[in-house]
Amino acid sequence: MTNVRLGIIGLGAQGGMYAGFIAEGKVKNIVIGAICDTDPAKKVLAAEKYPNMPFYNDYIEMLESGDVDAVVTCVPHYLHPEIGIETLKRNLHALVEKPAGVYTKQVKELNEFAATKPELTFAIFFNQRTNPLYQKVKEIIDNGEIGNIRRTNWMITTWWRPQGYYDQGAWRATWGGEGGGVLVNQAPHQLDLLQWICGMPKKVYANLKFGYQRNIVVEDEVTAMLDYGNGATGVFITCTHDVMGTDRFEILGDKGKIVVDDSKRITIKRLHKPESDMSATMNMQDVMKLFMGQGQAEIFTEEVLEFASVWGGQHIAVLENFAANIVEGTPLLAPGSDGIHGVRLANAMHLSSWLGKEVELRFDEELFLAELNKKIEVENKFPIRQ
Questions:
Q1: 225-228 long-range Cβ contacts below 8 angstroms, 24+ apart
Q2: Over the stretch 44-67, which tens digit does the pLDDT of each residue have?
Q3: What does the alpha-carbon distance between residue 213 and residue 162 come to, in Å, rounded to a whole number?
Q4: pLDDT in tens, 339-386
Q5: Closest CA to 262 of 351, 343, 364, 155
Q6: Gap between the Cα atoms of 41 and 38, Å rounded
Q7: How far does CA 185 lie from the centroid of its chain?
Q8: What residues does the Gfo/Idh/MocA-like oxidoreductase N-terminal domain cover (predicted)?
Q9: Predicted pLDDT of residue 295
Q10: pLDDT at position 286, please?
Q11: Which residues, including other chains, have CB under 8 Å from residue 162's CB and lie 6 or more apart?
Q12: Quick count: other Cβ atoms within 10 Å of Cβ 379?
């Protein structure tokens, strides 16, 4: 196989973007095999933009058509595990959009089934893992350049959404239709990057506000404290009502610090010797000089790296990596099985806020599902989940 025939399930914003990139020849080793959408208007749109392209309103029919070698799931979150499993069952490759699902129980079913099909490519669309900036941050951490992590802080409030955004569809910002708010819609990339770079915490204590500044039932404000189990702690803050927005990610180690501003600039401060050694050996005269803003060059070096962003480049990189894994066996940047980690973090934050207490990341999955179903029952618009 030299070109992977990709089936695009869902021709909305994401599916439409991917179709455009592929049709314009921007994605190596991929062609559009077929398009699927339940909306009749999308069939008309597809006929205009992609003449003579096979179109299906039933994704199972598309999977069994022989028109595709792989699919990407650009559909509501609850459907990602179901479609992923049905795709793999038919010996087709699966690229699942983020998040991998709404709750860990269903994502675990997807992962377990995918493990029975090791010959197939199973990936998740974490395009931020292709971002050279975050790849550099991970490299610095993995190389031990700032030592052992003591604290992480990420304030990512650049997700401003007006009320009109939520009013576009009855499924948006609902427990039964979308599965949550900012944690499952806007912030999954940051939740993935946080654990990919810094590791998974052991416990979470979260304060979530539901319908705080918008007329919605799900969370539009999140403040979560992370406990990594080894003394290190973290804070994760996000919301959808800050029109001025802040994106600042800080990682403190015992040998230095990394600060990422606006996902564009990395400031790396490397201590000449570990902070604990400084504490044990520095005389008070040198301490006073430091307090007065003197002699900092004798304590640490500072490096600033700037990164440009090309719109769509990260998405194209994920598609090309997916195809390269199928065609050439190139390692995946984001294996599908990794998708459960961000879902687990979001679930733990929801559960902590619902219960009003600290929650372990190895939480009771049935308890989470029961609490989620309580919210869905109150909405009385969607079926409860199994």
A1: 226/152, 226/201, 227/201, 227/202, 227/203, 227/358, 228/149, 228/198, 228/199, 228/201, 228/202
A2: 999 999 999 999 999 999 999 999
A3: 10
A4: 999 999 999 999 999 999 999 999 999 999 999 999 999 999 999 999
A5: 155
A6: 9
A7: 9
A8: 5-118
A9: 78
A10: 87
A11: none
A12: 12
Secondary structure (3-state) at 171: coil
Cβ proximity of 39 and 10 under 8 Å: no
* Phi, psi of 100, deg, nearest 5: -60, -20
CA distances from 5 to 2, 28, 44, 93, 94 (A): 10, 12, 21, 10, 12
Percent of the chain with pLDDT over 70: 99
DSSP strand E in the chain: where? Answer: 4-9, 30-36, 55-56, 70-73, 93-96, 122-124, 149-156, 203-210, 219-227, 233-239, 247-253, 256-261, 265-271, 300-306, 359-360
How far is C-alpha 289 from the geometric centre of its chain's CA atoms?
Answer: 44
Number of neighbouring beta carbons within 10 Å of residue 295: 12
d(CA 72, CA 66): 16
Alpha-carbon distance values, 296 to 153, 240, 291 (Å): 23, 38, 10
| DSSP tag of 129 | G
Q: Is 340 left (phi over 0), alpha (psi -120 to 50) or beta?
A: alpha
Please choose, from the candidates 153, 151, 216, 205, the residue with its C-alpha nearest in 3D space to the C-alpha of residue 182.
216
Q: How many residues does the chain have?
A: 386
Characterize the bridge pairing of strands 219-227 and 203-210: antiparallel
User: Could you give the domains of the chain?
Assistant: 4-126+312-335 (3.40.50.720), 129-308+343-379 (3.30.360.10)
Distances (CA, A) of 99 to 73, 265, 349, 384: 11, 26, 15, 19
CA distance 37 to 134: 34
Locate tokens 């201590």: which residue?
271
Q: How far apart are CA 151 and CA 93, in angstroms?
A: 39
Tens of pLDDT, residue by residue over 230-268, are 999 999 999 999 999 999 999 999 999 999 999 999 999
Considering only CA atoms, which of 147, 248, 127 is closest in space to residue 196? 127
189/194 Cα distance (integer angstroms): 9
Model pTM?
0.95
Q: How many CB atoms lie within 10 A of CB 285?
A: 8
Residue closest to 365 by CA, chosen among 380, 383, 350, 382: 350
